[in-house]
Amino acid sequence: MHLIDNLQYANWSEKIFRQMREGGVDAVHVTICYHENFRETVANFSQWNRWFEQYPKLIVQGRNGNDVRLAKEQNRTAIFFGFQNPSPIEDDISLVEICHTLGARFMQLTYNNQSLLATGCYETKDTGITRMGREVIREMNRVGLVIDMSHSAEYSTLQAIELSERPIAITHANPAFWHPALRNKSDTVLKELAASGGMLGFSLYPHHLNNKSNCTLQDFCEMIAKTADLMGVEHIGIGSDLCQDQPDSVVEWMRVGRWTKNIDYGEGSASDAGFPPMPEWFVDNRHFGNIEAGLKQTGFSDEDCAAIMGENWLRFYDDNFTPGNASPDA
After folding, report:
1. pTM for this prediction
2. What's the structural domain count of the chain?
């Protein structure tokens, strides 16, 4: 089994890289941008290059599914890059291919707000995919940069599924039937996502869990079972949204960026403006085994557990990170 977590935004360190190895995590999709422009995002790529040089026995850059397989063989973790906002491409569609060349493999079309491409889940009116958004979707399909609609509004998400010629991903969100957070997705979205070959990554960020930090492992795994019934087990995986060791000031950067002078508390309040405690059964990368055990206790077979814990994402990587319909070995 290949263990893949398809979304983290930790305060990266040798400690966390070692915990990835202790937990047997073969690949992680890491957020490399929230609101950064192109040049600032390049600086973030540069920082990761330094980490790859510093910790070559622990981490390696991933560009396709075969890099996950090789990392597992070498007892390393493959790192895949993604953007939670389209800000790195600014207003220049040519930067889509450049970002993919640098190693980006996922890009959200929105982060909560209206962007040049689509509408975010916090806006009161969802106008859907914009003119530029349609062109960027086509270009992302061409180069192998996966469309991510985790923070997008409903109509925009449904339009992205329809417009994209390749499957899209919702890398870190949960079903709204379980917990009605603004970012969690309706049955309609989840069914259309599955029908198009897309993937959902279940989030462990407490604001998106039933009972938040007090969510039980049993409740979480039962939610996964209900979602599997809705979507099919082949379309689900983990996207933990783990923000380990981040200071509370980073939450402000996530939500506020440079677009307002006020503090945006999102779905919470001033009293929970920072990072809430993680559920006791999932605190860091060493605890994915708890999820696997919980899935088996819920009734999933060994094969279905392996699919959810990483094999589904690995298949998705094989099919969608290369240009057009090229072979994953290309």
Report:
1. 0.94
2. 1
